Structures are given as structure tokens and as C-alpha cells.
Amino acid sequence: MDVVIEKTAQAKGAADGFKAEQVLAQQANVKIALSSHFGKQVTEIQVIWGKKSDIIIIFADGSKTTAQIKNFTNPNMAKWPFHQTNRRWIKDLPAEFQGIASHVCLGQPKNRGRLKGLTRKEFLSPYVAPIAEDSKRLARLILLGNEADWAPQHMILTVMTGGVIQRLWIEPMDSFLGAVDSVIYPTPQLGEEGTSLFICPEISMQRKGGDKGKPSADQMQFKLYFDAETMARHHYTELTL
Fold first, then answer.
1. Which of 87, 117, 126, 161 lies at 20 to 30 Å from 168 by C-alpha?
2. What is the gyration radius of the CA atoms in the chain, in angstroms?
3. What pTM, to 2 d.p., does this model score?
């Protein structure tokens, strides 16, 4: 895992302001805090692009670990926005989710609640209701991806203002997924607006939209929600900076 995937100039230009992973990789007190947390010196933090992990943390003993970063600009958890964590076509979803995603997320509002003639396109699989075990597998797919070498081993949350990380929390990904598993719904639940599905309070899926009507607007967008309720359920450690 020595390869660092750099952002293209175009992608960098599209980014708004500082990126938390880039700041985290350079901020001295973050490295000190992570060294204390892991009990061994952090010598380098490499930024990754285009993978499920955002950074590789490299230790003085030659060992490494990976993490996904979610950044916020407001320390008030009640005002934290959602984070997009994955986007994919319906045909790339596990088969048991393709029908329900077509029915709910691609449904025409005037026909919602009816099955026949409802969706923008024909169902890509029979309409079935995924069960909890299906949703647990989906959570791992969207959070860990398909490449084991690039799967994040930790979830890191940051609050950054003025280009400086002010607060930082870390949780092992196994612990994060365990907390998700504990509140997975028996079947996906309809969101309040009627066009999204929640597999648990932390994870939803909906039509991406936008893109000036391009076909990519019909991709499924997965969102992660962080707030006081979910933070209390998880086992984050806040590091002293």
C-alpha cells in the first residue's frame, strides 16, 4: 500500500477551500495526538484519492493503518450536515436492493405508492424487501468498498475552521460497523420525503439528482448522518489537540 493516488488538477480546482485530509496530513499536533492514541510514533500521513480510504497513517515501526475522514465546519453536532459516502448505478447494487431502489428512489412522485408504471425505468430485479442481513452487507459495501487493501480501518471525524483542525474523533471501523449493525432496520425504512430509504439511522440512499438531467442523476447516492444520537451510540475517542 505504498502507492499514493494524487488528485488531478481539475479535481483540486473543484474542491472548496481546504480539504480536511490534506490539512490532517500536515498538521503537527494531529500527528502527535494520533501517535499518543496508537501508542507509537506517526512518521507520515499520506493522502489518497479515489479510494474508500482517505489517508494512510504510517508509523515509525513500518506498520500502517487507513482511515476515512468526515469533516465538519461547525462543532455543534445538531447542525452537522450529512456526508455522501458512495454513489453507484442501481444495476451495481446487490440484487435484493435493485427493485426497492427503483420503486422508491426513482419513482415518479405523482405515482408513488403504486407499483405498476411507477418508475422512470423498468425494475432491474423483482421487487423484494431486503432483510437486516442484506442491509448489513450493503453497509459494508458502501463503507469498505471492493478493494480490501484500500478499505478504511478507522473512521475519523474532524471539525476544521480557518484551515485548522480544531477537534478530532476516531473510531475503529469494526466498532463503527458494529454500532450500525445494532440499529439496522428489519427492512429499509422510507424517509420523510418519500424518495429515500434508510437502512439504519446513520445510512440512507436516494436518487442523486442534479447533473443537469444527465443519466448520472439517476445514480443512487448513499449518505452518512452524524449527530448527537449516533455519536452517543458509537465508540469514538476524542483526541486532545
1. 87
2. 19
3. 0.82
